Amino acid sequence: METYLTIEELAVYLKLAEQTIRRWVMNREIPFHKIKKVIRFRVSEIEKWIDKGDFEAQGDLQEGELFEDETLPLELAEEEQANERLEEEA
What we know:
mainly alpha; single chain; Multidrug-efflux Transporter Regulator, Chain: A, Domain 2; 3-stranded antiparallel beta sheet; elongated
């Protein structure tokens, strides 16, 4: 029997933020299945998708956006903003 993962489980499996997985689903960039209105991912399809390299479809990013990652924990994002304010004031 095929193993299916939830968004949360896939995020842990791929070591990515759930928001990234959700964005990929919304943009239909990742293989997924809807089972009774619930999103699930087949591990075998995700492995093939990774092997094909389809997950690297990030060509729409501008150069400066490459490291602007919304997946940072809230504390780190707030700390970065505080540091930026301090640098601006100096």
